[in-house]
Amino acid sequence: MNKIICYLTDEFYEKYSNTYLEMEKKKDRPYHHLILSYKENQVVIPFRHHISHKYCYPTSSIIDGKCQGLDFSKALIIDKQYISNKEATVDSTEFNIIKQNLYRIQVDFEKYVNLYKKNLKKIQKGNKIASILNMCKFSCLQYFHNELELWKTERSFFIKLKSHFIFFNIDAEIANQNISF
Question: Whole-structure pTM over 0.85, yes or no?
């Protein structure tokens, strides 16, 4: 049986801390571990406090516009070798909410991924609405376009994103290629 709460390995942080600029950097931060059956990817979603946006699965009441819960915007798609064997724990109330709502969390996360993809298309078409730009700019999904099958687009799309001051961490080799599908 897969763990539903985990930590990431030190090796993961050493390898990706300077690459995935939007990821949570606390090594003792517990993550919820999902396996998305439709893509067979290992997805980890961090537990966070003081979440002030709607892209999350709350495990507490919203107070002053903030809650605690699983922050979809900081989710990572990783290789299972980076899931630590170290025992991870969270508050028992929070754990029970997660355990009882695994299916709902997966569905909500998939909706988040689909919204991210839609917003990227809107940006590609020239949309400059701040909420759409920020959703993509601050999402860790920007580092996983291959896994999300988002490279099927024109190179000019990435140039447009940079012109909106959104930095998507594209491997330099890939960014310099003529991307056409």
Answer: no
